[in-house]
Write a structure and sequence with these properties.
Helix content: 40-55%
Number of helices: 12
Number of strands: 4
Strand content: 5-15%
Shape: elongated
Distance between the termini: 32 Å
Strand order of the largest sheet: 1-4-3-2
Structural class: mainly alpha
DNA sequence: AACAGGGGCAACCGCCCTAGC
DNA sequence: CGCTAGGGCGGTTGCCCCTGT
């Protein structure tokens, strides 16, 4: 039993949108709001797939969209966010008001990739081109942390496969443990330490946590582990199964698989 | 002026996630 | 608890325009 198609393809238009179609879509959404995309085309009198309408609205017709070229500041912000988040275009778009995920994705593929290559940086890893795997392992946690791939996270994460480790002292020459202690003292997250100007708070409606998240600190080994649930403010919902993770060197967010 | 090639971008495709039943 | 519909997302495609020859 397959999934039913989102629309009857035989009776839908494809390709570029006409001005009249745009106008119909805008008028309908102004009157009825967004949502229920599947039934929208029929209700609005459009011979389009619901998904197509959604895409057209989100990427092109929405009134709050910022059209025009990306600024240098936006460029740099996208690069930094990509180094932290990888190809999570919607998350990146969430930090750039008026820009869409599709727009940023296209811009990345056409402009920024080239820009990074011209700087001698690999657009996916944000590391110097030609840097070997062993170089990476021998590199400071700062360099490792800039890699978005989960398996790279796992390298610094030791045996547990379900780890999300974010390690990143600002200064490559400093002892990572010092950085952790400093981070703890300052109350800054590790991401904030990498790019202090970027607010990576991605939650929309979670209540503000006035108290610092609980941490399990093993004084004797200088270990600090923060459960991601706790960090995000979910620790009171009963699903959090915090546990201490032995590690030798840096601040980690620990996310148990079923947490 | 005509043509070819490449780049940019809008739109589509197919998979994934989740809420609702 | 499993199934389905609806919506979201990342990757890919294809068309149009610009530039170089």
């Amino acid at each position: 039993m397959g999934r039913s198609p989102c629309c009857e393809k035989a009776h839908t238009n494809k390709g570029a949108w006409t001005k009249e179609e745009d106008q119909r879509l805008i008028s309908y959404i102004r009157a009825h709001g967004e949502g229920c995309w599947r039934s929208l085309p029929k209700a609005a009198g459009l011979l389009r797939c619901g998904k197509s309408c959604r895409l057209r609205w989100i990427n092109y017709l929405r009134p709050d969209l910022k059209r025009g070229n990306f600024t240098d500041d936006e460029d740099e912000l996208i690069i930094k966010l990509h180094s932290l988040l990888g190809n999570k275009w919607s998350l990146i778009a969430g930090r750039l008001p008026g820009r869409t995920d599709n727009e940023i994705k296209n811009y990345w593929n056409t402009h920024i990739k080239r820009k990074l290559l011209s700087r001698g940086l690999d657009p996916q890893t944000h590391r110097r081109i030609g840097e070997s795997f062993s170089d990476m392992l021998n590199s400071s946690p700062r360099e490792i942390s800039a890699t978005p791939e989960p398996e790279i996270f796992a390298i610094s994460a030791k045996p547990e496969p379900n780890f999300l480790a974010i390690s990143s002292p600002n200064n490559n020459n400093r002892n990572p443990v010092d950085s952790v202690e400093e981070a703890n003292r300052s109350g800054m997250s590790e991401e904030e330490q990498i790019y202090p100007e970027i607010n990576l708070e991605l939650s929309i409606s979670l209540p503000f946590q006035s108290q610092p998240p609980p941490t399990n600190l093993d004084e004797s080994k200088n270990q600090t582990t923060i459960c991601l649930c706790c960090h995000l403010g979910f620790q009171s919902n009963g699903s959090c199964t915090c546990q201490r993770i032995p590690n030798s060197y840096d601040l980690r967010y620990y996310r148990p698989m079923d947490c």
